[in-house]
Amino acid sequence: MKQFLALLGLLVGVMFLAYWSSKPGNLEAFFARTGLPTANTPTLTQKTLTVGSSQFKVEVAQTEQARKTGLSGRESLPEDSGMLFVLEKKDEQPAFWMKGMKFPIDIIWINDNVVSEITSNVPTIPDNTPDPQIPKYAPRAKVDYVLEIPAGVANKRGIKVGDTITLPQL
Question: For the chain, how many structural domains are there in total?
Answer without folding.
Answer: 2
